[in-house]
Description:
Layout: H1 2-51, H2 53-64, E1 65-70, E2 77-78, E3 84-96, E4 104-108, E5 111-115, H3 117-128, H4 132-145, E6 152-158, H5 160-167, E7 174-183, H6 191-194, H7 206-210, H8 212-215, E8 220-225, E9 238-241, E10 248-251, H9 255-272, E11 276-283, E12 289-295, H10 315-318, H11 328-338, E13 347-349, E14 352-353, E15 361-362, E16 370-372, H12 374-380, H13 383-390, H14 395-404, H15 431-436, H16 447-458, E17 462-463, E18 469-473, E19 479-480, E20 488-489, H17 493-509, H18 513-516, E21 524-533, E22 539-551, E23 558-565, H19 577-590
Parallel strand pairs: 2-10
Antiparallel strand pairs: 1-8, 2-3, 3-6, 3-7, 4-5, 8-9, 10-18, 11-12, 11-23, 13-16, 14-15, 17-20, 18-19, 21-22, 22-23
Helix pairs in contact: 3-4, 3-5, 9-19, 11-17, 12-17
Amino acid sequence: MSVRNSNARNRSARSNPTNSRSSRHRTFFTILVLFAVIAVFLVRLVDIQVVQADSLTKDSVGNRSVGQVVYGSRGEIIDAEGVVLAATVMRYNITMSPVNATPFKRTVDGKRIEISVADAAAEIGEATGQTGDAILQTIGAALTANAEANFAYIAQKVDVDVLRAVQDLHIPWTYSENSPSRVYPNGAVAGNMLGYLSGEGVPQAGLESGQDACLASTNGSETYEKGADGVRIPGSSVTSTAATDGGDVVTTIDSDLNWFVQQTLAARAQETGAAWATAVVQDAKTGKLLAVADYPSVDPNNVGGTENPDDRGSRAFTQSFEPGSTFKALTAASVLDAGVATLETGIVAPYRYLPDNGANINDSHSHPDQNMTMTGVLIDSSNTGMSKFGEMLTDQQRYDYMKAFGVGTPTETGFPREDGGILHPVDEWDNQTSYATMFGQGLTTTALQVASIYQTIANDGVRMPVQLIEGCRQADGTMTNVPDQVGTRVLSEKAANETSDVLEMVYQKSWVHSKWNIPGYRVAAKTGTAQMPDGQGGYSDGYLVSVSGYAPADDPQYVVSVSIADPVKLNTSAAPAPVFQEIMSQVLKKYRAVPSGATAPDLPSTW
Length: 607
């Protein structure tokens, strides 16, 4: 027994070396196969990450990465006190993926229920103010045009309340995008001057266009990853290019005053049946525009509400006209400055004057020959009398004075498409134009140019550039594009003050004195009445009536110029005179102008 067991152990010991060698062979083979598999994976990895990296990255971006615009904010337009006249607010476009518009599950009262496309469309419609059928039609139209359509608008430029209402529905195939929109918080206040943007955000008129270099923003971009269902993956946004906001345009305008001027002007224009009207308020010392009003006015929030395209711009800047008798102040100042006449110089003013050059001049009403001083000529607004004074200067001298006053040249405001008026060179004047230009015909001016003429006289003969913009305020508060406000002497101080004295006499003794009287203040002003062109080289039956002046005359601070075109119910200076009175009274009160202390001069009107 013990012998057999010993033999068995010996046989078992002899067989073990063979079994060990077989086990080692299997292990080696397994390791070899494992290395082969790893090698295959390594080769594939190198192929993907190195050899095909560029093409696969492009495919991945195309399939999962979505580019999106990051909008910069267009700058604001503000008044002199910081009141916002134009601003940008964020609106939103509600969009969807038509190809992914399918039923989805929603948890309601703890239960998962299926929401059909029709039910979802009805919910969207209720949130956006549409019908469910309209939403379904949008989906159908997009898929008809492209069976793989992945984008369509549901609603555009909605406010945040609508956006949240749609987002709260949690419909997986609806999305949103930012859509900056322009708003004008004060409606039509200075609307004609502000201008507006197109639906695509392109400046169309006014300061929006003229100051676009300051206001314009630069959009940026970002990318985000989307899942297989087209839904944005949370937290995946990467900004590629930062957006840059625009600068703020700071104007010289007082929006409260502009509102008052617009209301006053509109009331009188409607009362007299006028076609259009303008009013300008200017600082006499600085040339800054404090108010520029137009009738009819436009609300930039609703440009389509103003039917006539001509009423959407600012005629104060872009419409020139024959100024009529308000221009006589310029001729009188030129004559006095040149020293060819004094306030005591007398002329004989007939009803009709036929100078040697063949011109034919007459006054507005028949009268016998009158012995007049310059004061009398302006009080009576005599065309023949002014012609007698005007011919004391050569045509070239008068032309040079007119150019120095800014006639025939756009003002310094930089307003887009501003009219420079018409002032032909002297060698193009015919015999009638030579005299007509002495009393405001045969040339054209804008409302701003007329105001500038009176600003020059009021400011002791120094013309200040007409200023509408203080500058462009950058994000850090610095002001750029600040205009250079250096005055130019046009008249001697003596000539300007003498002209001012004459205009005070006009204010006191004009036939509209009771309609423009402002108690407590000395005022210098002149009326004007000019025929309006018929568009065919002649004159129509309509008149443009106007008043321009300044106060307090003993220390001029403010210029007001009012023009009313074709007031069919009252086509005389009695139409604009009350507007001048109301506006000037408001200006003096608003800015707390000190009442006049000294009495006005008393100049002889006859000799």
